[in-house]
Write a structure and sequence with these properties.
4-stranded parallel β-sheet
Length: about 170
C-alpha cells in the first residue's frame, strides 16, 4: 500500500501501423520515422498478386527494410483481389490471365492458379507475417464470385491457413 512506483513504457501490445513502399530501404529518414511512430506495417503494393508475381524480390526488399527499421508486426496484403487494374489503369494488381476465358471458364484452372499463388507467397513469408489479408475490397470487387459464387472464399481461407499456418 502507498508504494511509489514509476516506470517507462518502452513497448506496447497494440499494433500501430502504416503502409510502406520502397522508401523503407531507400530513405534513411523514412525508416527512422517509421520506427519512431509505428510497430506494424503492410507492404503497400508489392505483395498484391500481380506485382508480387512480377517482382517477388521487390516485396522481400520492402519487408526486410521494415523489419530492419524495427517493425515488429508485418501484415501480408493481399492474397486475392478480384480487381484487374490499379488506379493508374495500367498496372495489373491481379494477373491479367486471371480474367481470361481460359481461367474464368474452367474452375479447375481457376482454383489451381489461386492455390499456387497462395502457396507461393505464404510459404515465402511463412512465420514472418502477423496477419494476412486473404481477400480485399469484397464489396466493390467481385469478378470471380460473379462466376464461381461466394463459396470461393472458404477455399481461399483454407489455402491461407494451410500455407501460412493456423495461427
Amino acid at each position: 500500500p502507498n508504494a511509489n512506483v514509476t516506470f517507462n513504457m518502452f513497448e506496447h501490445e497494440f499494433q500501430f501501423g502504416t503502409s510502406i513502399n520502397a522508401s523503407v530501404y531507400e530513405n534513411e529518414e523514412y525508416a527512422k520515422k517509421l520506427n519512431e511512430n509505428f510497430n506494424t506495417a503492410v507492404v503497400e503494393h508489392m505483395m498484391k498478386w500481380g506485382p508480387y508475381e512480377r517482382n517477388p524480390e521487390g516485396a522481400m526488399k520492402q519487408f526486410d527494410g521494415a523489419v530492419n527499421a524495427g517493425i515488429k508486426y508485418m501484415r501480408g496484403h493481399s492474397l486475392i483481389w478480384e480487381l484487374a487494374l490499379g488506379s493508374d489503369g495500367k498496372t495489373y494488381l491481379t494477373p491479367e490471365y486471371m480474367f481470361t476465358d481460359e481461367v474464368l471458364k474452367n474452375k479447375e484452372v481457376f482454383d489451381e492458379k489461386c492455390r499456387q499463388h497462395t502457396e507461393s507467397i505464404c510459404t515465402a513469408f511463412k512465420g514472418e507475417m502477423s496477419d494476412w489479408d486473404v481477400v480485399n475490397e469484397i464489396v466493390s470487387d467481385k469478378k470471380f464470385r460473379e462466376v464461381w459464387g461466394n463459396g470461393v472464399f472458404k477455399q481461399w481461407f483454407d489455402w491461407a491457413r494451410e500455407y501460412a499456418g493456423e495461427d
